[in-house]
Amino acid sequence: MDITFGHGQGAFPDAAAVRTRVFMEEQGFRNEFGPEDEAPDMLHIVLYGDGAPLGCARVFPAALEPALEDAPGRWVFGRLAVLPEARRGGLGSLLLAEAERLAREAGAAEMHLHAQCSAQPFYERAGYAAYGPVEFDEHVEHQWMRKAL
């Protein structure tokens, strides 16, 4: 399979389709999209396999995340989703690595993410450490995690 990436606001329609399928249809989230998705500093990333969107994520400066204190070099990763039929092949790790690379190029020194607790082992393997309380985002437990880049 030929793997390519698309990023920027132009990638948002494909990212939205993946997020709708994974977060809304599969996982039952209702509040998946917000005005931050259209912010100029929001970087949408889509992973394509043979030209078809298979996964997505987004990365942005912490100033766009009201739950975090803004600080120079602090960025946020989120909305990692891989379509069910494309899972277990390492695509999530490729998306995370691409997001970290793009954030570093934009000046990120640390990355934060609000992980579903069930996904924490995935992020721990990539070097993230949990901090703060476990919180509910809609009906799913989440916890903040961070990593120095």
Automatic annotation (TrEMBL):
Domain N-acetyltransferase: 1-149
Coiled coil: none
UniProtKB keywords: Acyltransferase, Thiamine pyrophosphate, Transferase
Protein's name in the database: GNAT family N-acetyltransferase
Source organism of this protein record: Adlercreutzia faecimuris
Source species taxonomy: Bacteria, Bacillati, Actinomycetota, Coriobacteriia, Eggerthellales
